[in-house]
Structures are given as C-alpha cells and as structure tokens.
Amino acid sequence: MVDAQAKNSATVMRLLSDGLNCRSVPHSYIQPLEKRPTNLPSSLISSPHCNQQNYTSPIVDLEHGRFDRAKTIQQIFKAIEEFGFFQLINHGISKEMMGEAMSVGREFFEMPMEDREKLYCDGFEKPVKVASSVVYDREDVHYWRDSLRHVCYPVEESTHFWPLKPPKYREVVAAYSEKVRALALKLLELIADGLGLKSNYFDGELTQMQTILVNHYPQCPDPSLTLGLPVHKDPTLITLLLQDLFGLQVLKDGEWMGVQPLPGAFVVILGFPMQIICNDKLKAVEHRVLTNSSTARTTITTQVFPTKDCTLEPIEELIDDQNPPKYRTLTFQEYFNAHMAARLDPEETIKPFKLH
C-alpha cells in the first residue's frame, strides 16, 4: 500500500511538473460541479491576461519619499474593509529585484525532474519541500499546482536548506526575502497604528516565522473544470503575493472578483490569525486560484505568521460592551491544526474558536 501511494505521488508530480500531453483534464483533477469556476472571462482561455469590465483594484501607494502616514493608514483600512485585500505600489523594492526573484522561481520548475524530486515530501515538518497536485478536499480531488515551500527567516539560518539549483536561487531569494520582510513589518506597523496600538505591537512571536512559497500552475487544457487552489483564507498574519499573470480571485459581496496584476505591485492579504487578533475589525478574505489554457503561471508568496506556541486572542483595546470578544484564547498551533483538519474550509476552521 505504501509503495502504491508513493508511486502515485511521484506519477502525479511528474504529470504537472513535466507537462501534460493530453487534451483533457484527468478525472482526478475535475472539481465537483458546485466548486467549478463559472463565468470565466473568455480571455482566460485564450490569454493569460484578464480584461474584466467593471474591474476595480484597491491600491495603496507608499509614495516613495512623499510618504503620508495618516493617508496611507486610511487607504489600508478602507481597502481591507471594502475588498479584503489591496495592491501595494511604490513600496521601495525595485522591479529588477522582483523580476529576478520571479525568474529563479520559474527556473526551478523548468529544471529536470531529478533535480526537483529530491525535495518532494508530504506534510509540513521539513524546512523545505516540493509538493504537487495536493488534495485538500474531502472529495479527494487534486489541485492543479506544483509548489516549492521553504523557511526564510532568519536568512542566515535558513539558506542552507534551500535548493542549490538554479545557481542564483539562494543569492536572489535571500536578498528578496529580507526586503519583503521589512516591507511586511512596515505594513504591520501601520496597521497597529490604525488600530490604536503601539507601532511594534506585532513584533516578536506574532511575526517570528516567515516562509517563501513559489507556486507553479502549469498550462491547463480546460480551466472551467479545475482549480489551482481551493477557496480558503490564509493561515498567516500577513501575506505578500508577487504575480505577473492573472489567476487570483477574491470573494467580494458574494461574487468572485479577479485580481489583475499591476506591474511592480504586491497583492497584500491579511490572514485568519489577524482576524482573530482584531476581533473581526479587519477580516481575512476568501480567495482561490484559477488556471489558464495558454501558459504556465508562477507566483511568489511571502508568508509572515506566529510561532506555534504564540497566543492568539482578541486585542484588549478593541473589546468593550459593544464589541465583546468573538474568539476564545488559542495558540497558533491549535489554529493551524484546525485549518488543516478542516481541509482549508474557512467556516469549519474557525468553528472551534468562536464564542458567538
């Protein structure tokens, strides 16, 4: 049985990473009818760019040297409250650095299989892992994605775990991850200020962990039948996504809204732990990933989150008679275990911790 499972895992991995030489989506990847993406823009089938009409992207502009702290905080809170995410521009990380990071991420998935499969494993126990076609749902349906995930903080204690190939991977990603971490902490300072907290409130255990997740979504024969990632809320404090092709959708007012990439921008999403801490004042957004039939799509996600023993509970300053605590005290490990046990389902994940 173990040999059969291992063989199946390796076969599935090769299926996506080495290209799919067929004209239809294999049965094991076809989503149940109620989970399939509907009303896909025709451009998604023929082009990696999605030109949706009535598209409005919330944008936060750090304005380089003309930074206005109060204005920026207002932009962040308005975007999160109305849309659940925003695209961050003029953030100080060069397009050259972002481009180099994206390039080595793509190169990793273009390498020969023998170079990648050495890192293949199940579970989250290893500091670096390659995964493919992961099953999240109880329907046992595979998702159309390959991924490389590894720890990246502190950098000097992490790089020896990282892939040796492509040759520039460690150098490029080390510099990139340090810059993005500084940016994430700056955003969290602004959020703390907006909540009426000390600027360093989110320092320490709440942001001690950081990972890089390189997602690779191969070209798909029929995007209407499958998904790259299921509907979920992030298990992070804050997530910064680098994307250059369309694929991300967020749920807004009961409808799926496409997040069209902006050159040089990060998509910023708050995770469920932040929602707990903020007592629902700032909410994590449900989102999913589509595939497309014209080209492969690669993204780089930087995830900042608490240590496993870190306590999560609504902030005392945000609680009063009109706003009683909505969640009980828990550890991040408790939350993450529930997240995985619920197969990423947002409602099922949070049920054990809700007070009202």
UniProtKB/TrEMBL annotation:
Stretches that traverse the bilayer: none
Keyword terms, alphabetized: Iron, Metal-binding, Oxidoreductase
InterPro entries assigned to the protein according to its UniProt record, in alphabetical order: DIOX_N, IPNS-like_FE2OG_OXY, IPNS-like_sf, Oxoglu/Fe-dep_dioxygenase_dom, Plant_2OG-oxidoreductases
Record GO terms (molecular function): metal ion binding; oxidoreductase activity
Start and end residues of each Fe2OG dioxygenase domain: 205-306
Listed PANTHER family: OXOGLUTARATE/IRON-DEPENDENT DIOXYGENASE
Family, similarity comment: Belongs to the iron/ascorbate-dependent oxidoreductase family.
Designated name of the protein: Fe2OG dioxygenase domain-containing protein
Native source organism of the sequence: Stephania japonica
